[in-house]
Amino acid sequence: MTQVYNFSAGPAMMPTAVLEQAQRELLNWQDQHTSVMEVSHRGKLFMELATQSVADLRALYNVPDNYQILFLQGGARGQFAALPMNLIGEKGKALYLTSGHWSATAAKEARNFAEIDEINILAEGELRVDRLDFSEIADNYDYVHYCPNETISGVEIFEVPKVGNAVLVADMSSNILSRQIDISKFGVIYAGAQKNLGPAGITIVIIRDDLIGKARQATPSIWNYATQRDADSMINTPPTFAWYLCSLVFKHLLANGGLTAVEKRNQAKAELLYQYLDNSTFYRNEVAKANRSLMNVTFTTGDDELNAKFVAEATACGLHALKGHKVLGGMRASIYNAMPIEGVQALIDFMQKFAQQHQ
Fold first, then answer.
1. Angle between the N-to-C axes of helices 75-87 and 101-110, in degrees from 0 to 180, rounded to the nearest 10
2. What is this enzyme's class at the first EC digit (predicted)?
3. Known catalytic residue: 214?
């Protein structure tokens, strides 16, 4: 196989057209005969790029005018700490809905800064979300946090939790821009870029205006949402190349049908792979159908040695990064926005041949 398909969970593959444009512009961006990495982030051209990137993301995601878009650093883990420092107020505590590794990790980090209550929303012994209505208790908390897509287990939550008038916070690192959502239902959305937005090194925060300016006094300025807003996300030198690549991704998505087209492609890819898994007697996926991720498809043969052999042979055939996370094992195919349906079909073709050889 001459074509390589990268199924990495992150950093993940990016649109080929975006990488090709970056390659063309690497030594001569905006006719400056220099790289975008070498110009001042406060110079006119980069400031124009930053302003346009915010406008493009706002248009792409239908972000209301009363929300700010910040381009920050520190990844989602940085936001695990920033959230309680900025949002814990009069009620003095937050509620974390845990459905897997990353939502639980966010809750653990938040406990360093505030009182945290945690509710596991998975059904006992199953990879299925069985509770999403918290409207009776949510008002007791300054905010309610959840992770709509757990990359490790491949569990996705498609329905927005009911939290009444409470502030809903979502870690969308692994499913941001995968489909259109109603931003107004959320107080804060945050996401590391390295799956659907761009390269590792930059983090998007979309936050409602009324939630900014409430940070505790001890909050470091780099984590203070008001400070970052007032400085246009530039209280220090931002990761300019990562920001530039994100701006190209936004334009690429806008030029290719927006999120309506993105969602259609993502559903087609996931349906193709899950249909094969459901009809297979050799592989199995253990996530309930209602919560199967469109981004991260987990599967196993049930035999660790056979799983390892699968990953090694798939890699040799140009199907990269299919090894499951060390927490869960097995295999994982991450099929984010940039993965073409041809990559999914190539994976299925390999899976069929491997199963025939080892059934």
1. 50
2. transferase
3. no
Catalytic pick among 171, 223, 243, 269: 171
- CA gap 254, 227 in Å, rounded: 30
Taking the model in full, what pTM does it have?
0.96
Is 102 tagged catalytic? Answer: yes
For the annotated binding site for pyridoxal 5'-phosphate, the residues are 76-77, 102, 151, 171, 194, 236-237
Name residues of the chain where pLDDT drops below 50. none
Contact 144, 166 (CB under 8 A): yes
Active-site residue among 29, 56, 102, 223?
102
- The reply to whether 265 and 252 lie within a common domain is no
Model pLDDT, residue 326: 86
Give the domain range for residue 314. 11-16+257-357
Residues 158 and 283 in one domain: no
Q: Which residues pair with 96 in a beta bridge?
A: 118, 145
Let me know if residue 1 belongs to a domain.
no
Beta bridge partners of 189: 170, 206
Element (H, E) at 118: strand 115-120
